[in-house]
């Protein structure tokens, strides 16, 4: 599983536009092959900063979405709302070694 976090700093006056765009596309994104989870977070201290948090079966599934017609519509419409460049990264759950004495 791949977890994708994208931090979006929006122009404060355009937050409502972003939220409408997210609501219009979230179910379609969730329906993309390999998407297992999608939610939107709002920064606790900066109300114009949001993060998308999504889970994908693999990097290939995420990249297929990023090559899709849906992404080609949603991302350009979202980018024009930014006050700063987005910050995106992918992570996986960490695999920890067994604790001493638990082998």
TrEMBL record:
Gene3D superfamilies: 3.30.70.100. Residues 2-92 form the ABM domain. It holds the Pfam family ABM. This is ABM domain-containing protein. It comes from Hymenobacter swuensis DY53.
